[in-house]
Amino acid sequence: MNKIGFDNEKYLSMQSEHIRERVDKFGDKLYLEFGGKLFDDYHASRVLPGFAPDSKLQMLLKMKDEAEIVIVINSDAIEQCKMRGDLGITYDMDVLRLIDAFREVGLYVGSVCLTQFADQKLAKKFERTLKKLDIKTYRHYPIAGYPYDVDGIVSENGLGKNEYIETSRRLVIVTAPGPGSGKMATCISQLYHDNKRGVKSGYAKFETFPIWNLPLKHMVNVAYEAATADLNDVNMIDPYHLEAYGVSTVNYNRDVEIFPVLNRLFQKIYGEEIYKSPTDMGVNMAGNCIVDDAVCVEASQQEIVRRYFAALVDRRNDKVGDAVVAKLEFLMQQNEITVSIRKAVAAARDKQAKTNEPACAIELNDDTIVTGKTTRLLGAVSAMLLNALKTLAGIDDKVMLLSPSIIEPIQRLKTVHLGGHNPRLHSDEILIALSISAVTNPVAALAMQALAGLKGTECHSTVILSQVDVNVLKKLGVNYTADPIYQTKKLYHAK
Question: Coil, helix or strand for 447?
């Protein structure tokens, strides 16, 4: 699927302008709580075709001279060595990764705030690491009665105990490596301290999903529910916005539930109401930039099925329980979505049934289906990729892109010299071998030129993919799913 449903350039312009307007509304400073991923937002790019994975980052770059970033991390998450599931690194290491990534593109990272700080051993160690790297650090402490004891929170013994984060720019982006970080609490703490200092500052929230000005049951919003099935988020009509303005908008349960408390905190700090609804707090303009609704609906249906397969694999690996899978099944039934919309699923399973070998199928952007199976030399993903490249490049299927004489020495290297047990070549090894062959083999060179044609394609494997193959498919822009079955009966499966 390579159809465009979202105007990315319009979004960059409209979103940055809307944030500037919100800064101006409050005067001196705006703390913008940034939910979700600032870059590598592949969920958004999948359900809103045309949305670039780094759109939000590019939007901020339009305002880089007026913005600084504060990264927030929960001290308990450091102590528990919480991991990012998509990257396989701990939250504290992700903070360093984020700082590097922001600096690389010219965004100013002002400081790191350690929330829920209670002298945790690993949190103190990480704090020392940051200071050695000349990164400003601040501590925010647990507050008794948070978030409901408003009087206790908005006091010297509550927010008053937190260290004040020194900022130098009008727009302060508050972001974090994961959920439950304390981003909102950090913003509220800053509002309290600013107010004491006579600084006119405000708060706003940036969440891409659910999209507030799309219908509640629009597929894009349903896809968000699917993506957060493990968090038990539920989209709902914002009752406060409906009451205040007579207009139906969409928000999610956690923001709606906390709004009365948040509103009371704002009133306690400012002496007046600054927002009438959770929707008012938001600044998201994505819904105004959809240019082809049908394309986004179709893309979102595909995403829901992908999330379902991912949950099946996670359940097989004991990462989620039956409830998550059941919720996704319910969403699919409710919206009359079946796995059959992913044509690659049936094709892969048919290939396996015919060959009695693990198989993989890919649906190219022109709807052509290409398959591959596990062989003595290649894994199923590797075989599928080579066959797909031949199709894209117009190379006859009988042509062998890589001869056994090239593959077998690599196999010997893996097994004899490096002590590996699986002689078959993974997708990264196949692509490296193909790129080397391309130097002397014009056909291989032709296949390499076709790599870009894989972006936006859909593939399915009849067995759980290795992490190597997952990473390669991600980098190639291939949307993948897999049946929750391992290729072998081993108890340990290397990542």
Answer: helix
CA dist., res. 492 & res. 495, Å (int)? 9
Residues in the chain, overall count: 495
Q: First vs last Cα of the chain: how many Å apart?
A: 29
Residue 38 and residue 57 in contact, taking contact as beta carbons nearer than 8 Å: yes
The per-residue pLDDT for 79 is 96
State the Cα–Cα distance between residues 242 and 199, nearest whole angstrom.
32
**Per-residue model confidence (pLDDT) at position 372:** 96
> Is 312:302 a contact under the CB 8 Å cutoff?
no
Are the beta carbons of 206 and 35 closer than 8 angstroms? yes
> Measuring CA to CA, which residue among 163, 176, 91, 99 is closest to residue 126?
91
Report the percent of the chain where pLDDT is more than 70.
98
Give yes or no for residue 423 having a pLDDT over 90.
no
Q: What are phi and psi of 148, to 5 degrees?
A: -90, -25
Q: Is 107 in contact with 66 (CB distance < 8 Å)?
A: no
Instruction: Place 408 in a pLDDT band, splitting at 50, 70 and 90.
Output: confident
Q: Which backbone phi and psi does 374 adopt, to 5 degrees?
A: -70, 130
Domains located in the chain, CATH noted = 8-289 (3.10.630.10), 343-495 (3.40.140.40)
Please name the residues in contact with 441: beta carbons below 8 A apart, sequence gap of 6 or more: none
Of 85-94, 121-130, 154-163, the poorest mean pLDDT is in: 85-94
pLDDT of residue 409: 87
pLDDT of 279 > 90? The answer is yes
* Distance from the Cα of residue 122 to its chain's centroid: 26
- Alpha-carbon dihedral 204, 208, 213, 219, rounded to 10 degrees: -160
Instruction: Name the band, by pLDDT with cuts 50, 70 and 90, for residue 272.
Output: confident
How far out from the chain centre does Cα 354 lie? 37
Look at the alpha carbons of 48, 49, 52, 53 in this order and tell me if their dihedral is positive or negative.
positive
Reference 221, options 248, 199, 189; nearest CA is 248
- Does the predicted TM-score (pTM) go above 0.70? yes
d(CA 460, CA 361) in angstroms, rounded, equals 5
Type and span of the H or E element at 109: strand 108-115
Q: Which two tokens stand for residue 301?
A: 């249906």
**Position of tokens 């051993």?**
121
What φ, ψ does residue 481 adopt, rounded to 5°?
Answer: -140, 165
Q: What angle in degrees, to the nearest 10, is found between the helix axes of 293-316 and 219-227?
A: 20
The DSSP code for 110 is E
Residue pLDDT, tens place only, 192-249: 999 999 999 999 999 899 999 999 999 999 999 999 998 888 999 999 999 999 999 9
Radius of gyration of the chain (CA): 25
